Structures are given as C-alpha cells and as structure tokens.
Model the fold of this input.
Amino acid sequence: MFYTEEFISHLKMNQYSYSTLKAYRKDLGHLEAHLTCCGIKDAMNISKPTVLDYLKMLNGKAHPTKTYCNQITRIIKYFRYLEEEGIIFLSPLRDYSIPRYQTNNYPVIGKAEMKRILWLTNTVEPLCIKRKAIIELAYSSALRPREVYELKIPDIDFKQGLIFIEQSKNKKDRVVPVGMKALAWIKKYLQEVRPRYIKDKSHSYLFINHKTGERLTVCGVRWAIQETLRRSRIKPIKPYSLRVTSATHLLLNGMNIVYISRLLGHSSIKTTRGYLHIDLKQLKKEINAKHPRMRMEKHLKNKESNHEI
Done:
C-alpha cells in the first residue's frame, strides 16, 4: 500500500488547488507504477537506490528542467508525509538536494529598456491608460499576472500606498507596497476609463474587459501589455517578466534578498534566488562599486596619491 490517496487528502486539507492536486496525483501515479514494476507493493519496502534510479530515469536530459524539479519536489513531500505519519521510518530522499534549473522563459528587462517602456508607453487612448496602469502596477509591486487581474478596488490603500493580495499562490495572503506613479495611473484609469466600460457594477475587480465589463483574464493582461508595447513601437515582453525584472532591479539597487522574498510572497529564499537573473558584467560592476574590499583599495590609493603630492 502506497497511501497516495491519504496524502492527496492531506493536501486537500491544506487547501492545495485543484491543478496542483492533479499534478501530484499524476506524478505519484507514475512513481507507484514504477515501484510496482520493480516488485515493490508497499511504501515500507521502498529503498533509496530504487527511488534515485527512478529520478535518473525521469529526467532523461542533459540539464534539469522546471518540470523535472517540480516532480522531485512533489515526491520529496510525499515521502516526508509518510515519514511524519510514521508509515516509514525515514524518507529515502531526506538529504536529497533538488537540482536547480535555468530558464529563459521570463527574461529580465534591462534598466534602460524598462525606462523606455515606462516613459514611451502610449497613453493617448482610454484603453492605453488601462494598459499603462497594468504595467506600472506589475513592475512597481512585482506582481504575478494573476494577482493583477484578481485585484479588487477595496484592496488598494491609496493613502498608505499598500495593496492587499488575497489568496494568491498556495492560498497565501500578503500586503505589499505600491509606488506613487502606479497609484497615480490607477486613479486616472478609475476616473477616466473604467466607468466607460463597466456594465455590471456589482463586482469590484479593478481591471475589466472593455467589451464585457467583466474582470480581465490572464490572456487579457497579456494582450493589454503586448498591444500597448506594439502601439508604442517597443519590442514585446512577457507579463511575468515584469515580476522577475522588478525583483532583479531591486536587488541591483541594494535591497536585501529577505525583503525581496517577502515582497514576492515566497516561503523560501531559495525560490527567490531562482527569480534573480543578473548579467555577469552587471554583477562585476556592482561588486566593484559596492564591495567593502574594493572601497578600501580605492581609499588606500587616494591616500597614497595625496601623500605623493
């Protein structure tokens, strides 16, 4: 007996989403089928070498992918559950380190390019104001696209400069700051644009579809950003890149990674590290400018120069 359904019920109690539960059931089903083929019919008989062989077979590529790393994470949580419930004595993956994967799905936008996007975005037409507000908000508070289209007007504190993110990824709430520029564009959108297109005044979603009056979808956010950049003759970007870019720019400007992690809503700083894509030339430049040892050397050189004079 592998106790898969008991584990899934445990996840349900912890309010895991339907799609996440589906992914767990799929991965654990494949694991169970493999173990059965190996003649293992009970969780107590699973050995570490057997699981490691399965993980090697699972990848099949030169470099770990995001999918592969997610599969490992789910299997580790499954064995942790079995250990905590006393079904097995020790998890076969207790000391296993999840490999890191590199992804270019959401590339970081350079500071110069981001400045162009913020300054050159077309805001002549009413719908362009909505799109401008979306871009400013996503970049200001490092929001996921889902957090943008699910944001409600009462969740914005214009006086304090804060927004409340309700039940985001992993059903977690959080409060994050939002910049004055983003708030100004949101106000402009609320005053000049949203009233034109709202048809059902019973909902309070901030960003709405201009045809139906309903809240935007993830496709609507993507289209809004791409269309605005196209009209402004700026190369297209992926909505999630605004979140990754915001986090990376904050790090380059000296913000502590602990605060960045909290802003992003991550439970672990390891997750945050995966977001921070820093160009090596830029990293070298930052080290030369900010590392204490580099500053000491400059100070000593200045003293020697003054002494020679």
